């Protein structure tokens, strides 16, 4: 029997998020008779210590920043070369640039880059130049949805390298089990039986626009035709926007008091990070996602698998999950009034609500992780067999050095531009 091929999975961090959860599920299920994986991440937090310890996986933390400092890149390259890595698969934007550069510097034979989002919130000339610098040397790209593949074709120069769609997937089992214990989960989490419980399980980051959900719910208290009764909202997860959301909540409450609306702060709760997503989703009456851009949101699939109807944005990604109104509501997530209209319909139209829940469960089953892994194994076989066709590589020590210095220059220019764009 041939030796397993050595594959490095590289990601920026192991904080709970769609890309990270999917990667952990991949690590659990990768065929060890065919592939020997190394998991590399750059920075804390690491929310998956339990899985890593129970799985006995080979994991390395290597400090490597978005600045793409040559010394850091070379350190990772030495690790990859020392481990005899034959294929590098990068995940998330930091790893897609810095991790890929290290793989190329180490002379790794095959390199795959995985796009889990359209990255519209970061897509500028500097992002485009970074990708154009790396793409000719990349064997192939993976898009998490057809919408992301189309977006890449329209917005980035991938130097004609192949792009394969590997649609995001979920371990359906925990969500299937949780939906059968809804009452128990509500009691455990302190959700009263008659409360209409909304959850948001995406990370609290600017492109997720969680403030739009607060604005919609605050608006409900000033619209007699859009009253929601006794409701509660729980933000399940962490992120950089937590304090800003609390300030926005205070602002909305002051504004509501001035116009005769209701203060909602007492109805809004933040749990921080948790691994109990299945329990929180099963304890919810409605899942709400209001992002500005997505790839293919696993949080949406998880909610549907838990039997919780969903309101989500009418954008790339969610459109590939919610194929019709009978499976959930897609809305203009830039408009709080549109989000409120959808929430109100879910709250008041009981016939539609039940239909969306049933159809959502059936649709979620189509995103099972088992089918994903079959396609993933086939993709690795294809790349390792050189069926993607040859990609160029930086030549010699001088060529690799020039390659890294240009990468560093492009990364610094991008960081400087982002800092200048932040309001004082």
Structure write-up:
By secondary structure, the chain is of the alpha/beta class. It has 2 domains: 5-169 and 369-421, Rossmann fold (3-Layer(aba) Sandwich); 173-367, 3-Layer(aba) Sandwich (Rossmann fold). Helix content is 46%, strand content 17%. The chain has helices at 18-29, 49-55, 70-82, 93-106, 125-134, 146-155, 173-179, 182-189, 210-220, 242-258, 277-282, 298-305, 318-321, 336-348, 350-364, 369-384, 396-421, and strands spanning 5-14, 35-46, 58-61, 87-91, 110-115, 140-143, 163-165, 196-200, 231-236, 268-272, 286-288, 310-313, 329-331. It has a 7-stranded parallel sheet with strand order 3-2-1-4-5-6-7, with helices on both faces. A 6-stranded parallel sheet has the order 10-9-8-11-12-13, with helices on both faces. Helix 12 links the parallel strand 11 (286-288) and strand 12. Helix 3 packs across helix 4. The chain is globular. The relative contact order is 0.13.
